[in-house]
Write a structure and sequence with these properties.
Radius of gyration: 22 Å
Number of strands: 7
Number of helices: 7
Structural class: alpha+beta
Shape: globular
Strand order of the largest sheet: 2-4-5-7-6
Helix content: 25-40%
Order of helices and strands: HEHEEHEHHEHEEH
């Protein structure tokens, strides 16, 4: 065998070894991705009539890109929270409305992504819509960003109400002009929900559920959501009209990190 043939065989063997190591490492990562406890479900299996517009799977959020851990645009919750939402949906459907989810279970890796974004003061790409009046240096101090989130425990959700029949919301186009989240509804990014006075994830005191500046139909819409959910065991975060937690939480002290995907909650894997 020539020296050239030996050299070629050596290179091929090295490439095969590298590919094998890479494939093995990828398979190991896939096998070791954390899984949800058995009491977690996809909301669609409990109530397929509830709309889902999972913002952190898209680029239309305050980060401006898909957030780590959101592998599919689905809502995952603990079963008690999902079943309570089903009861709320039944009440709202009888009144001509439907619930719409913006976010549900949120893995810790997504929260870490928020923290990295907040620490990068050069990234202001979505300021014009989501935090036009807040200096990014104050996001931690003002409580808009934190290193832990109740969403990671599986019973907290962000949601709104849509009047039936629901019309589709057009897709967000990255780079399009941004309008402040507290602008009049007809000027904000289109959302098929009822007018709550601000858009979702609006970093502004106008998003406080009972802010006295929110009056008339906007206030009535917030109260319809609040009264419906609180009657069924949900607790509102006063600083965010869209944020609710079902109580008692099955996992009050655990912050999970399994990805948002059907595989995370599928049994028998």
């Amino acid at each position: 065998m020539t020296r050239l043939s030996c050299a070629v065989r050596g290179v091929v063997a090295l490439l095969v070894a590298l590919l094998t190591v890479t494939a093995t490492a990828a398979a190991a990562r896939a096998r070791t991705d954390p899984r949800a406890p058995t009491d977690f479900v996809t909301l669609g299996t409990v109530d397929p009539t509830i709309l889902q517009e999972m913002r952190y799977f898209t680029q239309h959020n305050f980060v401006g890109e898909r957030v780590d851990g959101y592998q599919q645009p689905i809502c995952i919750l603990t079963r008690p929270a999902a079943e309570a939402l089903h009861r709320a949906q039944t009440k709202l459907l009888s009144q001509g409305y439907t619930l719409k989810m913006y976010d549900c279970y949120r893995p810790q890796r997504a929260v870490n992504h928020f923290v990295r974004w907040a620490e990068d003061l050069n990234d202001q790409s979505m300021k014009g819509e989501f935090y036009p009046n807040v200096d990014k240096t104050r996001l931690f101090e003002d409580g808009y960003i934190a290193e832990k989130s109740g969403h990671s425990r599986g019973s907290t959700m962000d949601l709104t109400i849509v009047k039936l029949p629901a019309t589709p919301t057009r897709p967000y186009v990255p780079g399009e002009p941004l309008v402040p989240c507290y602008a009049p509804q007809q000027q904000r990014f289109p959302d098929n929900s009822v007018d709550m006075g601000t858009g979702f994830d609006c970093f502004d005191t106008l998003a406080h559920t009972l802010d006295p500046r929110i009056q008339g139909q906007q206030h009535a819409n917030r109260m319809l959501l609040k009264d419906t959910l609180e009657a069924l065991g949900f607790v509102n975060l006063p600083e965010e009209w869209w944020h609710y937690t079902f109580k008692p939480e099955p996992h009050p002290d655990t912050y999970f990190d399994f990805p948002v995907s059907v595989k995370s909650v599928a049994q028998g894997w």
